[in-house]
Amino acid sequence: MWRGTVSQLHELTLPEDGPPAPFGAEVAAWSLGPLAVAGGVFSARRMTRGPRLARRLGVDHYRLLLPMEASTLRFAAGEARRVVAPGQVIFSDLARPEAADCGPGELMQFIVARDVLDALMPRPSDLHGLVPEGPLAGLVVDHLRALVRRLPELSAEEARRASEASLRLIAAVAQGGAGGDARPAIEAATRRRITRHIEAHLTDPELSQETLRRRFGLSRSALYRLFQPLGGVAAYVQERRLRRIHAILSGPGRHHLGTLSWQHGFASQAHMSRSFRALFGHAPRDTEQAPAPLPAAATRDRLLSFEPILRRLDG
C-alpha cells in the first residue's frame, strides 16, 4: 500500500545497505489553493524520478523539500550533489529527473505550479537542486515549520492567506539564491506552454511535431531538445492520449474502442490496443471502472492520492 501511495510523486525503494527493516509511513496532505503541502514521518528510503514517471505525472511544478527533526536528505540531480539537513530546504523540479536518499524521520514538501512561482520572480531561474543559505533561508524554514504545525487549525480562508504569504517568502528566497544559466528555466516554461496545448488538443487530428513547431515558432532541433527529457514529442503525445483513453474507460458507460482510437489519432484499434497494453500491462477491454467514492469513514485504509492535489495547482 505505501509504495502505491508515494509512487505518485516518485519511485520509492528501501535502502540496500544495513539490515532489512520494515517500512512505515504516516502521510498527510493539504491543498491550499496555489500551494500544496504533503509529507509525514517515514522510515529510511530512496526516492527517484525519471523521465517516464515525469511523463506519467504530466505536471510541471516546483517542490521544496524540508527535512524536519532527525531527518537528513542526500539529493542528486545530474552531476549536482547536495546534503540537506534539518534547518535547510532544497528546491526540486517535478518535471526533471532526480534521486534522493532520505534518513528516517519527518519530511515535508511544498508544491507550487511553475507559472505561479515564476510570476513572483523578476526573471526565470534554474531552481532544481538549489539549497538557499543565509538569514532569509532560515526565516523561510521557520515559517514553513510553523505552517505545518498550524495547518490543521486553519480555516479555509486563513489557509488561503497563509499560502499567499508563504509563496512570497518562497519566491524571495528563490530569487536570492538562484543564479547561473537561466536557460533550463526558460526551456521549462516553454515546455509547459506546449504540454498545456497538447493536453487541450489530444483529439485534434492535426496535432503533430510539425504543427507544434510552427505554432510555437521553434526549430526541429529546439523542439527535440525541449522534449528529450520526456522521451520525445511523439512518445509524450502518445502516452498522454493513452492515459486519456484509460481515464475514459475507467469512467461510467460503455465505449467503442475503434471510435476512441480514431478520436485520439491512432491508425487503427489494433495499434491503440498494442500501445495500451505496452503502457498499462493489460488490454483496453480489461480496464476496470473506478469504484464509486466511499464515505469518509470508510476511506481510512485506502491509498492517499496526491494526483488530484497536483492537478488542482494547474487551475
TrEMBL record:
Pfam family, one: HTH_18
HTH araC/xylS-type domain residues: 192-290
TM helices/strands, residue ranges: none
One of the record's GO molecular function terms: DNA-binding transcription factor activity
SMART domains in alphabetical order: HTH_ARAC (SM00342)
Keywords: DNA-binding, Transcription, Transcription regulation
Protein's name in the database: HTH araC/xylS-type domain-containing protein
Taxonomic source organism: Rhodovulum sulfidophilum
